[in-house]
Amino acid sequence: MAEVAQTTAGRTRGMGELIDVEGKTTEIAPFGTTLAALAAERPEIVGLTADMGRYSDILPFRDAFPSRFFNVGMAEQDLIMIAAGLSKVGKIAYCTTYSVFITRRAYDFVAIACAHSKANVKIFAGMPGLVNGYGATHQATEDLNMMRGIADLTIIDPCDATELKQVVRAVADIPGTVYVRSLRGKVPVELNADYRFELGKAKVLREGSAVGIISCGYMSMRARDAADIAAGQGVDAAVLHVGTIKPFDRDGVVAFAAGFDRLIVAENHKTTGGLASLVVEALYDAGIMTPMIKIGLADSFFECGSQEYLEAKYEVDLPRFVRAILENR
Amino acid sequence: MITMKSRNHPPEHPDIAALKLRALNLRRLMLDMASGKGEGYIAQGLGIADCLAALYFHELRYDPAAPDWSDRDRFVLSTGHYAIAMYAVLAEAGYLPIRELASYGLNGSRLPMSTFDDTPGIEMVGGSLGHGLGQSVGMAIGLRLDGSSARVFNELSDGELQEGSTWEAAMGAATFKLDNLVAVIDCNGIQADGPVTVKIDPVADKFIAFGWEAVEIDGNDMQALVTALGNAREANGRPKAIVLRTLPGKGVPTLERRERAHFVRVANDEWDLLKTELETHHG
């Protein structure tokens, strides 16, 4: 399934595919293919979508298990209610649509029907953050902020295809409701095959001594790319990937941060209410006041446009990342 | 207390008189609970008592000794504030000790004034209205996938029909051809601010237009209830809606006449009068 991304000039990426595919090995639809494989072993798994099957990569599961797949139409509240109901009769319900529609539209249902009831509902939320060119209606730039406010909800922001595939399997055995910021289409394979996702454990992806980068989601992939470039200019940055947003690895983050006198926090999210806020809370509580650059989005709504245009405009792209490492010298 | 073990299909000929006596017992228990607390959603509880008696002592299959029996019929109470009625019927059915009802609404009780799913016999966290029908759809799909003959009964209210999520679920139920799903819709004409504020009639016609079978009955008529529930057993690919026209405070004339019936507070010395009214007016 792995292939190297096409780099032919002018070729358009699929909607929601990351810029970072350029030059990297990728896998197509790692979420759906892994779910289909897992479901062959776990008959209690069912899959649902709210008219976003194609764009959430769940179609490999539908094709393998059509009787266990339910498309509820454009009805996100219903999606979450039905998933909760299925869990109450013993199913593990994997459901998909875009992050924005889950978080903004169906919040009460995620909180009460799922999290409060410890429902075995696994939400794979497509195109979180700025990974959508359709403007603010489609950009879940505050989803971490919203979802971390729900008690008993697990939140995972995988880095790449390697981690996402492990997460698809891991969540089946994590009790209760899980919100995963999914990656779709051609997803880069960044992490080594020996990487192991562990719930609630941040992982050092790159050793370094000059700057400590704390990041989540695909920004950890970009952090490594930026660190490699900066290393060529004499600045050696370390990268700590926070794959689990909740429960947050406070001890791991504090221990990592304590080793640096300069920090960068990077996330595909607003810099308010997400990873940066979590890191600041943890460090403050530990008495650490290290200077920090936050790479992320402002408290705003964002316009339509290509991934390249948006990420450059809002200063979350690779050049901005490299600059932050070097400026932080 | 008689412990029910209703694992068999309901009898062909229901004992209407016995069911009416069950409903009276439920109303007695509710008045006891409300008088202990001094307040409560008693009017709705009295209104739905006949339906709960018909369900729990005629239609539903369950086993209070095995609350997690996988093939039990599910009764999903959406209106969490009807907790007082649920606790009464769960005690009458053997899920809860009668003596525990005295803790209704008290701090630390497992019988709070709105239902939560850690109370034995409660299938869903109620209270945030608009949750019940959708979760019932999920349960019905899952039970069918497993080849279970269990059915899902969802109680929801007329005020709750104002929640858009209810209609998302209604569309889904018809789309997925859930003939193992029965909605009992308590149309008592009241909501928190007073009389139902948004025009929701005709209710049955709306469900029919959504692809359901629907019937409207007097929700305080025991014979009509068991007949409608019997008709709803038909496995014809369509979900069933039973629209109940109920009278808030039913059985206690002082409460039947009360204008602000959504949440009732009664002076300490009036409870005995209400209990006397119930004994005088039943049947």
From TrEMBL, chain A:
Residues 25-189 form the Transketolase-like pyrimidine-binding domain. CDD domains: TPP_PYR_DXS_TK_like. Keywords: Thiamine pyrophosphate. Signal peptide: none annotated. InterPro entries: PDH/Transketolase (IPR051157), THDP-binding (IPR029061), Transketo_C/PFOR_II (IPR009014), Transketolase-like_Pyr-bd (IPR005475), Transketolase_C (IPR033248). Its cofactor is thiamine diphosphate. Belongs to the transketolase family. This is Transketolase family protein.
